[in-house]
Amino acid sequence: MNRMKAFTLTGFLAFILVLSACSSESGGNSGDSEASEDSVTLTIGSWRTEDKASYQKIIDKFNEENPDINVEFKPSKNTEYNTILNTALQSGEGPDIIHLRPYTPGIELADAGYLEPLDDLEGLDQYSDETLAASKGSDDKQYGVPLNMSTTQMFYNKKMFEEMGLEEPQTWDEFMELNEKIKKEGKTPIALGTKEGWLLSLSHGIIGPAHYGGNEFVDQITAGETDFTSDEFQSSIDAMDELKQFFPENYEGLGMEDIRTMFFTGDAAMFPLGSWEIEVLREMNPDLELGFFPIPSAVGKEPTITTWVDGSYAINASSEHKDAAKKFLQFMTTEEFGTMFTEEFKMISAIPGIESEDELVNALGKAAEEQSTPYMMLVHFAGGNPSTKATIETELQGMYLGERTPEEVAKTVQESAQSWYEPLQK
Amino acid sequence: MKPATNSNSVVKIKKERNWKRWTIHLFPIPALLIYGLFIVYPLFAALTYSFFDWKGIVRGEFVGLKNFKDLFTLEPFSGLFWNAFGHNILYFVLQMVFQNGLAFILAYIIYKKVKGSEFLKIAYFLPRLLSVIVVGFLWKLILNPNYGALNVILEKLGLEQFQKAWLGDPDTALISIILVNCWYGIGFGVLIFLAGLQSIPKELFEAGKLDGADGLSMIRKIVLPLMVPSFMIMTVLTFIQSFEAFELVYAMQGSQGEPYHSTDTLAIYFYRLAFGGSAGGSTTAVGLGSALAVVLFLFISFFTALYLRYMQKKQVDM
Predict the structure, then answer these.
(1) Can you list the residues of chain A whose pLDDT is less than 70?
(2) Any residues with CB less than 8 A from the CB of A135 and at least 6 apart, and which?
(3) Looking at the 3D structure of chain B, how many domains does it have?
(4) Contact call for A401 and B58, based on CB within 8 A
(5) Which residue of A has its CA nearest to B281?
(6) What pLDDT score does A192 carry?
(7) In chain B, what residues touch A47 (CB-CB under 8 Å)?
(8) Are A3 and B21 within 8 A, CB to CB?
């Protein structure tokens, strides 16, 4: 009996301790900010652990004009960043400045009230509406300063093209002929595998606009004037199906690393992927002569580069130093910052008109300004559960495995979008 | 005088004993704390989460059993649930046959003291010492369709017609993963079965021999019945492990159940629902995910308890 009591008591004690551990709230956000009366310390949360050194340079530059604001860049691992950030925000904590995921996931945070509206911030008017849309809340307020653009396009191996006497295609037919020629030479035309679904929505983002007709279709579908079962969209899926003859052998079992390796080792001539691959490709094979071309239209429109905002910076609504944080975001809209960013990070700044010393990045940036079409699935259709973007990934995968017809793919995508996307519910 | 001091010291000893008896109960506290914080608390948290509507990461209103109803009746969730459930059953069956069946045979061979049995014992157990992530990565390389060792070997043997994109073909992807899991887990099975075999008294074998039992009938009549506890342990462990199958599938195929949902298990499906997949850009359904976690927990604990009860009864009967 006595023993039983002791046991219960111990258990109870443990339980209380657990409870108190759970409910204890561990203080403010940014710790020893009151060191000197005028100086504050800001923390930046991000998923770019690899950019720590580059951010330090940016911060040093910022401190030249704002010596009384200390800024700490505290990134966490890419795949865990969302979870860490969400948990912190839910308990009223988190960094003062938040690196925001683009579109739906970021906007979800704004709609939940965790972010500070930035409408009065100077410098926001230089960005285009499409760029701002990446971090615009459902209440039409701006919550983020766009940082950088990602683009997807067809990369190609310049040397291989030269050896085979090929040129950048100007029309879709030329593109198909080009593929035939490379295949005849015994090389793989397009390095693409279908094992990882995200590669499929991504490559559809490149190929698709050439068939559904770029921005015009995007405007129509977001207004609810057409849908995914329309001929335009259907032809974009058909094109994806048709291209499989130019994919590598066993493409259904190839993932990201496999196709990248095929491309930089010269087994494959073209690589439909994003601007972030430039650095990786050069690192893996410094001799690779890398070129890119916008996808030529099959329906008589201009060739397109697919673009979207990759990240924005926002302010935590429960930050104690909002004014200082705003100063930093203000700095992020300046040309000075933009130039430094492109040089340091080799990425395309979201600020218009910034030139890069890197020829390829520069050309991409220019093309992105002149021939851009949005990555429609990410920008407009990343909502729903499972999201419409995830749906097209699985469905395309099914198509390449022979489980789905292109018509079924379009139909399922339409059903998914209809379940949550208001313009399509009319 | 004397008796007085005596009784005093008795009291002292008693007090000391009492104190000791009390303090001993303080020692589990750190462990209990960790257990409470990381197991009991999340369990109840998931249970409560599953009763609410979730908008992204924000908890909405109380919706009762709606999440559970959606999970079982609303497409695509219900289709995906049963699809994943079927895969877990396949996982269990294949592991029972290939992992535990082979493990028993191997254990018996080692027990019979063939040459090099000590070496074999270590060799079979070796994969278990590797991290699951390493195992997954290694096998991903071996199974790679274009430069993986398996397809290269098939080609060298002139068996090109059997070459496949092992992890890219929905017909072979899950089975490949399960067989890798068997390879990984077989050493543990061998150890358990070997321990079971070694605990059988030698006299029984001698008596059996005198009564004319040999080879197979020895296994059937003497070894198998006495190995019931080992089989029981392995069955329960395999059951739990195969219905919680996650790490290896995740390491080899990611969280999307690719290709085309052919490698979805309940745990992978749960992860995708609750945490929004591996790509970082997809939406989450915390309510549905929690509901699935609760269902999974109840299912595993119910059948494990049922099975253990049944086997205990059976053991008593014998």
Answers:
(1) 1-38, 79
(2) A100, A102, A106, A107, A110, A142, A143, A144, A145, A146, A309, A312, A314
(3) 2
(4) no
(5) A105
(6) 95
(7) 280
(8) yes
Contact assessment for residue A153 and residue A305, using Cβ atoms and an 8 Å cutoff: yes
Instruction: Give CA torsion, residues A300, A302, A303, A308, to 10 deg.
Output: -130
Based on the fold, state whether residues B181 and B305 are members of the same structural domain: yes
Contact A249 B146 (CB under 8 A): yes
Could you tell me the domains of chain A? 40-148+308-366 (3.40.190.10), 150-307+373-424 (3.40.190.10)
| Chain center to CA of A52 | 19
Q: Which residue has the tokens 């269902």?
A: B295
Q: Which domain holds residue B41?
A: 2-49
Q: What is the CATH number of the domain that holds B97?
A: 1.10.3720.10
Q: What is the pLDDT of residue A32?
A: 41
Confirm whether B54 is domain-assigned.
no
pLDDT tens, B42-64?
Answer: 888 888 888 888 776 677 788 88
| Whether residue B151 is found in the same domain as residue B247 | yes
Q: Does residue B76 belong to the interface with chain A, where contact is any CB pair within 8 Å?
A: yes
In a domain, B59, yes or no: no
Which residue did the predictor score with more confidence, A2 or B118?
A: B118
Segment B273-287 mean pLDDT: 65
Does a structural domain hold residue B57?
A: no
End-to-end CA distance of chain A: 70
